[in-house]
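Incident review: delayed structure delivery

Summary: a single-chain prediction request sat in the queue longer than the usual turnaround. Root cause was a stuck worker, restarted by the on-call engineer. No data loss occurred. The affected request and its eventual output are reproduced below so the record is complete for anyone auditing the incident later.

Affected input:
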Amino acid sequence: ADLGISRVSLGAQSFDPAILDTLGRDHDSAEIIRSVTLLREAGIENVSIDLIFSVPGQSLDQWEASLEEAMGLLPTHISAYNLTYEEDTVFFERFQQGMYQEVEDLNADMFLLAHEFLTGRGMRHYETSNYAHPGFESRHNRSYWAGKDYLGIGPSAVSTIEGRRWKNIPDT
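Output delivered after worker restart:
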């Protein structure tokens, strides 16, 4: 906060241990809660939490429980991303092998659940996957869609400067 950082986005993805395991994440919900606590203690009030839905094996109840846990941390912003099967990933390979399947009706149900849940708690749906309390919309998201320059810092962060786009290595 002393350096001017005013917003931090945490890639929690889920609060459910089984879903985190499927996603290959090595953190747990206690670490997410601790991270939010540390950020607030450091003076960063604008905390965004990223969540993923339509993870193989994920139920509507598990998705709703993650939304509830996330909102319990009083974030100013939540990104609710539908899992996509990207080439050159284990998920894509498993999808092509038939181990994972996309269920469009479940995807839609999970999207609608998030929309109703988050907007019912005062968040505004301002962009495809993003919800924020008024005044806390992500400048990055708005810049991205407008084609403006932005610099991503950290593992896997993507940047675009003067029409040149790149991605940082995914390893800390």
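Verification: Helices lie at 17-22, 29-41, 60-72, 90-96, 104-119, 139-146.
Action items: add queue-age alerting; document worker restart procedure.
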